Amino acid sequence: MSRFGAVFRATVCALALAACGAGRDGTITEVVDSGTGPIQLRLKNSGSVALTNVSVLVADNVAPITTGVLQPGQTLSFVSRPSAHTDPAVSARVGGQTLSSQPVEGFSGFNPPLADGRYTVGLEAAVLEGTLRLIVRVVRDQ
To answer: I want to staple 91 with a disulfide (CB 3.0 to 4.6 A). Which of 15, 100, 130, 141 is the partner?
Structure first.
């Protein structure tokens, strides 16, 4: 095997090992998304339990931001959307239970649009008043 082949193979193995560990302990992982627009959003699991089947809809007529698993502390890379609102519609599963957070008036009324910029959508499953609930916080990044 040539020297180039050995270096190439070692590089591929290192990248594969890095990908296996991505997404834990606050690392940022990539999500495949073809959205475009002046608003960039990323999902972060702010809680202590894994969220699965995550779907975040930030406005009417735009694709939801989805991921199969969002581990505790994991932050996904930014995705773009042409519009978004301060209170997104979110669903996720914890264990065998589906949790959701829906804007009271949909994407109108008291759910104003976000200004152009970068935002982190923090998601957390927490027990409040004896019930497992999904807490959603949209924070503008600096």
So the answer is: 100
Q: Is the dihedral of CA 40, 23, 15, 66 positive or negative?
A: negative
- Output the pTM of the full model: 0.78
Residue whose C-alpha is closest to residue 123's, from 84, 86, 71, 68:
71
Full set of structural domains in the chain with CATH? 24-140 (2.60.40.2890)
Which amino acid is located at 7 in the chain?
V
Residue type present at position 47: G
* DSSP string covering 30-50: -------SSEEEEEEE-SSS-
Name the amino acid, one letter, at 25: D
Phi and psi torsions of 122, nearest 5°? -85, 130
d(CA 84, CA 96): 29
**What integer pLDDT is reported at residue 7 of this predicted model?**
34
Q: Give the per-residue pLDDT at 35.
A: 77
**Are residues 81 and 37 in contact, defined by beta-carbon separation less than 8 angstroms?**
yes
Regions of the chain where pLDDT drops below 50: 1-25
